[in-house]
Amino acid sequence: MTEPIGPVGPHASAHAVARALPSGAGHAIAPTDLARIHAGIERARELGVAAHRSAERSSQGGAIDVEGLLLATRQADAAFRMLAAVRNEMIEAYAHSARGRT
Q1: How far apart are CA 83 and CA 16, in angstroms?
Q2: Interaxial angle between packed helices 31-59 and 66-101, expressed in degrees from 0 to 180 and rounded to the nearest 10
Q3: Nearest residue to 97 via CA among 19, 21, 16, 45
Q4: pLDDT tens by residue, 73-95
Q5: Mapping DSSP to helix (H, G, I), strand (E, B) and coil, where does residue 67 land?
Q6: Rg of the chain over CA atoms, in angstroms?
Q7: Please, how many CA atoms are within 13 Å of residue 79, restricted to the half-sphere of its CB?
Q8: Rounded to an integer, what distance in angstroms lies between the CA atom of residue 53 and that of residue 82?
């Protein structure tokens, strides 16, 4: 089974973003913030997997719980959109920091 969001782990998480920041950026991401971002990524992955499994069960002739499938899909979509917004803010903050150093 493939995961809809893809592999998530220490190298594909917010920890990698923190390591990618230049050392002279002047701004550090607090470890508690990194932990919360990582937890959000994990939760979004779990919701995506749950939605995928629910859709897979219904496509294989299992009992179709339309309401449950719709809810799981909406939760996964909302989590993914939230993570995209966080990513965009992090990219914007990095770009702002980079402009300040030049």
Answers
A1: 15
A2: 150
A3: 21
A4: 898 899 889 888 988 888 888 88
A5: helix
A6: 17
A7: 23
A8: 21
Q: Which two tokens stand for residue 99?
A: 């402009």
Distance CA 45, CA 43 (A): 5
* Token pair recorded at residue 46: 């779990």
Query: Cβ(88)–Cβ(95) under 8 Å?
Result: no
Asked if 25 contacts 97 with a C-beta cutoff of 8 angstroms, the reply is yes
Q: In the structure encoding, which two tokens stand for residue 55, read together?
A: 């859709």
Helix (H, G, I), strand (E, B) or coil at 28: coil
Model-wide pTM > 0.70: no
Alpha carbons 29 and 6: distance in angstroms, whole number: 24
Residue range 3-45, pLDDT digits in tens = 444 444 444 444 444 444 444 445 567 788 888 888 888 888 8
| Interatomic CA distance for residues 13 and 83, integer angstroms | 11
Nearest of 17, 26, 19 to residue 97 by alpha carbon: 26
